[in-house]
Amino acid sequence: MSADEQVRPFPERQDRTGVRRTPSDELSRRDAVRLTVVLWSIAAVFALITFARSQQVDIPLRDPDGRMFSGRLQSAFLLGLALVAADAVVRTLWRDRTARGFFPGALRTLRERWTLRRTALAVSGLVGYHVVYVCYRNLKSWDAFNTDRDRQLLDFDRTLFLGHSPAELLHSLLGTGGAASVLASCYESFVYVVVAAVVGSVALLPRVKDFYVMLFAGVWVWILGVASYYLVPSLGPFASAPQEFVKLRATGVTASQAEYLVDRAHLLASPGSPDAFASISAFASLHTAFTCVILLVALYLRMRLLSIVMAVYLVLVMVATIYFGMHFVIDDVAGVVIALAAVTFARLTVHWPRLDFRDEG
Fold first, then answer.
1. With 268 labelled, which of 146, 154, 178, 212 sits at a CA distance of 20 to 30 A?
2. What's the confidence (pLDDT) of residue 240?
């Protein structure tokens, strides 16, 4: 038995396959290297594609106010540290429900879970994920230079609903006042849900391969999502059929929509301006895709309560995307397809070359 495979000097548990594991479930050095190389290879290829597009449009990569990379990554690490500390406190108190020896116990708990290898994998994973994200945001911004296909998508939506606008049908069914406020809160919470899912999985899931499934699924969502933007460039019903949304109560979502259009116009008019950055693309809905990814990963990990919560949240997000005209109906369908593909690719990536998804090693 190699040093990498030796059992750690603390209690073991039995996983779903009957294989006994240490609580940290640390990967072998070979698996750790493989995951790191694969993640950064994907990030490097995606970065090269991004740089090529940057040269094509003659605009450098941008990170406005650190929202895409530096500030976002810093926030992710701070949240991760807070969750790791909270997890250590809870597990220490559960193991020894007295105050005696709490701090030594908490430190021991941290050492058991957060070995050097696990910590390196977590840091590398988060940085690699955010490299992909900042490339995705820049590619999404430059999608503004493509000709949109909103008219075809609007016609397709109306064909699906027998000549009616799905957004107007929702307005008639739900109203345009209170429902707008509720759905806006749901839609705007998405950014926090994404951060909580990615950072929370890294900080709290006991198995390294499990949180890497979440990381890789997120990476694939951004890659497949931006590919769909370029496949079918579009702005969304709120931009191409604004008359359908004039009766909606003013919310943070409607304010953001106005900002998106202004930002896009600024980019098209002054692409060389340092603050020129667009954030609008409709097909496919990555609000739907990433929310669905979290649901699928929760189902994969057999987290029943989280799965129920995310299923309800997914429905609300999909309704909100149509209600506010952020997306066409087909965008949400495409988002679900992207989520299924992203999780499938993630599981294959993490568990390769063992294609049996029941493998927990």
1. 154
2. 93
